[in-house]
Design brief:
The structure is a single chain. The two termini are 25 Å apart. The protein is 29% helix and 31% strand. It has a single domain, classed as Rossmann fold, CATH 3.40.50. It is built from seven helices and twelve strands. It has 249 residues and is of the alpha/beta class. A seven-stranded mixed beta sheet has the order 1-6-5-7-8-12-11. A three-stranded antiparallel beta sheet has the order 4-10-9. Strands 2-3 form a two-stranded antiparallel sheet.
């Protein structure tokens, strides 16, 4: 989906492309004519919510301190708590739930393959071909659009081929000096979680219905290769088998 059509919740700075609804909880998004529209109905309550101290988040915010009216891309659901946290600090925020977009894309691909079961259609289902098609429709932002990125643990749930191509694409639309906050599991997680920002060093962790099983556990060397175009990397190891990592372009 193009840059002008993705959901951007951006109050506190001039942003004529963004919707500006203030909704409690996670927003539902309906698509109309290719555009994403926020509506008032909330999703059902999550099964479980816990909090965790996040040194990575604290360092992420420290690197953004003094930036002023920056731009941030959140690759998770449009949680109102996270939106408000950054909007109050002068950021323009765009939410782009890439895991749900990928899930919908795969469903559509399966339907197309069943409707047209030719050798050519199956050849187009290689991981690389499928990933390239997905990225032609998603994460389409102009170069140097964002100062910050909340990547969460998204890469653990994507096919490795897509993860590699996606990071290359993301790198292009981050400005020099942009900061990325990411998390990696040290082993395949037993459940699926979403995250939202509670305060400057606390994340709310919410159990959620799985979208995909975890695809890969990344080793440190593999992470460094994925983010090879970034000039620095800093990691924080925690007891809950999550490694928080910051990258600076």
């Amino acid at each position: 989906m193009g840059f002008l059509n993705k959901l951007g919740i951006a109050i506190g700075a001039q942003n004529d492309r963004a919707s500006s609804a203030a909704l409690p909880g996670e927003q539902n998004v309906h698509k109309q004519n290719g555009a994403s529209l926020a509506v008032g109905a909330n999703r059902p309550p999550e099964l479980e919510q816990t909090s965790r101290i996040s040194n990575g988040l604290k360092e992420f915010l420290w690197n953004l301190d003094g930036l002023g009216r920056g731009t941030l891309l959140d690759l998770g659901p449009a949680w109102q708590t996270t939106l408000t946290f950054f909007i109050e600090r002068g950021f323009r925020v765009t939410s782009d739930d890439i895991l749900r977009d990928w899930s919908q894309f795969l469903k559509e691909e399966d339907v197309k393959a069943k409707e047209n079961p030719t050798p050519e259609s199956y050849a187009g289902h290689t991981p690389e071909a499928r990933a390239k098609r997905f990225l032609l429709e998603n994460l389409q932002y102009p170069a140097s659009s964002f100062d910050a990125l909340l990547l969460w643990d998204t890469l653990d749930y994507l096919e490795p081929t897509l993860a590699k191509l996606m990071i290359a694409q993301i790198t292009d639309f981050l400005r020099p000096g942009a900061v990325v906050f990411a998390m990696f599991h040290s082993k395949k997680p037993s459940g699926f979680q979403r995250y939202r920002v509670a305060d400057t060093n606390t994340l709310q962790v919410l159990s959620a219905k799985p979208i995909f099983p975890a695809q890969k556990v990344y080793q440190n060397r593999e992470i460094q290769e994925l983010f090879g175009r970034f000039r620095s990397m800093k990691s924080f190891i925690s007891r809950d088998q999550l490694r928080e990592t910051l990258f600076i372009k």
